[in-house]
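Possible regression after last week's pipeline update?

I re-ran a chain I had predicted before the update to compare outputs. Posting the input and the new output here so someone can diff against the archived version. Not blocking, just want to make sure nothing changed silently.
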Amino acid sequence: MAAKARALMHQRLAVTREDIAEMLLPVLAHRVLRNFEAEADGIAIAEILQALREHIRPD
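New output (post-update):
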């Protein structure tokens, strides 16, 4: 929904990969839980989502 809203704010009717990538961190940050290893290694939730975001590169 956030990606749709972003697309509309940019005067587009269709969502792009860029819209999804830009909204990934603000929308999912509170939904991701780190496992024990990630917490012990000091990996931040933002780092996890950034790694995911790299797979949604804009065309």
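Follow-up from reviewer: compared with the archived run. The two ends are 21 Å apart (CA to CA). Marking as no regression found.
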